[in-house]
Design goal:
- The complex is a heterodimer of chains A (about 140) and B (about 300).
- Chain A has two domains: about 80 residues, Aspartate carbamoyltransferase regulatory subunit, N-terminal domain (Alpha-Beta Plaits), CATH 3.30.70; about 45 residues, SH3 type barrels.
- In chain A, about 10% of the residues lie in helices and about 40% in strands.
- Chain A contains two helices and nine strands; from the N terminus they run E-H-E-E-H-E-E-E-E-E-E.
- In chain A, strands 2-3-1-4-5 form a five-stranded antiparallel beta sheet, with helices on one face. In chain A, strands 6-7-8-9 form a four-stranded antiparallel beta sheet, with no helix packed on it.
- The longest helix of chain A has 7 residues.
- In chain A, about 25% of the residues are buried.
- Chain B has two domains: about 140 residues, Aspartate/ornithine carbamoyltransferase (Rossmann fold, 3-Layer(aba) Sandwich); about 160 residues, Rossmann fold (3-Layer(aba) Sandwich).
- In chain B, the strands form two sheets. In chain B, strands 7-6-5-8-9 form a five-stranded parallel beta sheet, with helices on one face.
- In chain B, helix 6 links the parallel strand 5 and strand 6.
- Classes of the chains: A mainly beta (about 140), B alpha/beta (about 300).
- Chains A and B meet through loops of A and helix 3 and helix 4 of B.
- The complex binds zinc ion.
- The site of zinc ion has 8 residues of chain A, from loops.
Chain lengths: ~140, ~300
């Protein structure tokens, strides 16, 4: 197995379902942060079989709303002095701004460049969100 | 005291029942005594921003403002107007709201008026956004019911035709369901039934009863109102169904003979063939009156939003 040194200070996003790590990496713009980042893919996991892990050094302000939408298995650990000092809960957000687009092709958010899509949670189990503007339901489906 | 000054109207649910009632009663006195409101909006300007043509709605709003002594400006087709393609709604409204005291916006994109209202410094009225909402049609329908039947609660209302895509129907059902004791008879072909999500919403948030029927005759003897809508041929899955079913959703004098003597026949217009012309002279047919009452509903609404309703 490839060895990756533990980080001294920063964030470890663990238990990402295998295959979603790169997608999260891109969605959270981690390449643009200017901090050292490692993305580990297909790491053996007791819980998931295989998982992805992202480690970000010297940075702790990760968008947990986005992670909550992606999967309940994800854990976010804040590291200081090589120790986990905080586990940030990841939950399905009540309100989501700008992370996905409205599924209604007639919705104004799909044609107006200025407006940022805004959604309110309708049903947590099916990840169904109601659009603030057209009031149609969009089910969040990744991949 | 109802104070709607400065508010926007995007959906009928933006108004509570007391506010709706205040709009109804002013509309009623406007209808009864039109001339005494002839200068209520003197010096006020209504901007009609119609990103898609809708002659009826636009003329109704313009007539309403002109009858109150105000002025109008606007456009009726974004492709030939000064509104440039690709400009965001936010930018457009931030410029145009300085030209008028109140704005009505019709837009093919659902949610566009809500977006516009977030940037508008003057009251903004949704004049119809795609298949989503058309609140002044709902106010018009309520006013018609209020004027003819004297109540908006404990009504038995049949909705006939396209109940799936008909936004007029959705808005009116949702609004009538907020009053106690409503019973809705839903008459439509299988493919055009009321959306399950709306049914679920009604069942959870109101005490209304929903009865689904395949044929108009099942509901007609019981109801206070028959609300007709147009069924577009393209909405049917196949030609055979269309031919088989099309007459089931057409109101003619034979069917009307089974209805109560005081029942109202309503329709948001324009109609195609779903109401036979022979019905027009029947006193129960109020659809043309509806269009007239729409002007009073819009006058009253604008007077409320401009804060001149108490004058
Ligand atoms: Zn939408």
């Amino acid at each position: 197995m490839i060895e990756v040194a533990a980080i001294k200070k920063g964030t470890v996003i663990d238990h990402i379902a295998a295959g979603q790590g790169l997608w999260i990496f891109n969605k959270l713009n981690l390449g643009q942060l200017g901090h050292p980042v490692v993305l580990l893919m297909n790491v053996p996991s007791k819980r998931l079989g295989k998982k992805d892990i992202i480690k970000i050094e010297n940075y702790t302000d990760v968008d947990t709303a986005m992670l909550g939408l992606i999967g309940s298995s994800i854990t976010v650990n804040i590291i200081e002095n090589e120790h986990v000092v905080d586990k940030v809960p990841v939950f399905i957000p009540d309100e989501v701004r700008g992370l996905f687009s409205c599924g209604n092709p007639r919705c104004v958010t799909n044609s107006d460049a200025y407006v940022i899509p805004l959604f309110h949670l309708h049903d947590a189990r099916s990840l169904a969100y109601v659009c603030e503007y057209c009031e149609e339901i969009t089910k969040v489906a990744w991949k | 005291m109802i104070d709607l000054r400065g508010r926007h109207l995007i959906s009928p649910s933006d108004l509570d029942l007391r506010e709706i009632s205040s709009i109804m009663s002013l509309a009623q006195s406007m209808q009864q005594n039109l001339s005494s409101y002839a200068s209520l909006c003197r010096g006020k300007i209504l901007a009609t921003l119609f990103y898609e043509p809708s002659t009826r709605t636009k003329l109704s709003f313009e007539s309403a403002m002109l009858r109150m002594g105000g002025n109008i400006l606007g456009f009726s087709d974004a492709s030939t107007s000064a509104v440039s393609k690709g400009e965001s709604i936010a930018d457009t409204i931030r410029v145009l709201d300085s030209y008028a005291d109140i704005v009505v916006m019709r837009h093919p994109k659902e949610g566009a008026p809500k977006l516009a209202a977030q940037y508008s410094r003057v009251p903004l009225i949704n004049g119809g956004d795609g298949g989503h909402q058309h609140p002044t049609q709902t106010l018009t329908d309520l006013l018609t019911i209020h004027m003819y039947l004297g109540r908006t609660s404990h009504l038995k209302v049949a909705f006939c035709g396209d109940l799936k895509y008909g936004r007029t129907v959705h808005s009116l059902i949702e609004t009538l369901a907020r009053y106690p004791g409503a019973t809705f008879y839903l008459i439509s072909p299988e493919e055009l039934r009321l959306p399950p999500r709306l049914k679920e919403h009604l069942e959870q948030h109101s005490d209304c009863a929903l009865i689904e029927c395949r044929r108009m005759e099942e509901a007609l003897p019981a109801v206070d109102i028959l609300y007709m809508t147009r069924i577009q041929k393209e909405r049917f899955f196949n030609e055979a169904d269309y031919l088989r079913l099309k007459n089931s959703y057409v109101l003619d004098s034979d069917k009307l003979a089974q209805a109560k003597a005081k029942m109202l026949v309503m329709h948001p217009l324009p109609r195609v063939n779903e109401i036979a012309y022979e019905i027009d002279s029947d006193p129960r047919a109020v659809y043309f009156k509806q269009a007239e009452l729409g002007v009073y509903a819009r006058m009253s609404l604008m007077a409320h939003l401009l804060g001149v309703d108490g004058l």
